[in-house]
Every structure is written in C-alpha cells, then in structure tokens.
Design a protein that fits this description.
The chain is α+β, with helices and mostly antiparallel strands and about 120 residues long. It contains two helices and three strands. Helix content is about 35%, strand content about 10%.
C-alpha cells in the first residue's frame, strides 16, 4: 500500500546528510541499513551499500530508480534452482535433443551443398 500524500515520501534524513554537497564520482560506497528509504533525485549517481541481512550489496542509483525503495535492489533471499535427480534427467534429455537437432541441421546443409 502506498504512503499517503499528506505524510509525503520517506527519505532517511541521515542518508541525505551523507550525500549533501558531495560529488557522486569521488564518493565511496555509502553503507546503509535503511531499505525502506525511497530514492530521491539527489541520490542519482551515488553508490549505496544496501544491507540485505547478511552483507551490503552495492547499488548504483540511476534515474530509472527514482521513486523506488533501496531495498528493492538488494534481494534478501538467494534462489537455488528446484529439483534434484529428476531435474538433472530432464536437463540431460534436453541437451541430447539439442545435439541431435544440431547434427540433423548440419547433415541437411551438407546434403544441400552436395546437390549443387
């Protein structure tokens, strides 16, 4: 749910104080735990180290990110693919089918080349 217009957007004051009057290119990574803070236009060009619960993930802020939250660009969960033995078998069959298709394509192109 969005924040009410009456309250305004939430941008952490300490975060704005850290970037105030600094050059984005010469400023090192700014570490922050404020994942709920929205990205404002003043933050464009700065690199933030957004904490994901374990480490700080570097996020280079661009113009497209304005209005989003810092936490959106620092995932807290790591995806490990599904499946086990059954998934490996499916991947192997898919790989074999691709190899067979490639062999058939080369054989067809060789046959077309010999007819000329």
């Amino acid at each position: 749910m969005t924040r009410s217009i009456k309250k305004g957007i939430y941008v952490d004051e300490k975060l704005l104080a850290k970037i105030k009057g600094k050059n984005p290119l010469s400023t090192p990574v700014i570490k922050t735990w404020k994942r709920a803070s929205q990205i404002s236009p003043e933050m464009v060009g700065f690199t933030f180290g957004v904490h994901n619960g374990k480490t700080h993930i570097e996020v280079l802020v661009s113009e497209d990110m304005v209005g989003h939250r810092l936490g959106e660009f620092s995932p807290t969960r790591k995806f490990i693919k599904h499946g086990g033995k059954m998934q490996k078998e499916l991947e192997q069959k898919k790989k074999e089918a691709e190899i067979a298709q490639a062999k058939a394509a080369t054989a067809a192109s060789d046959a077309a080349g010999s007819k000329k």
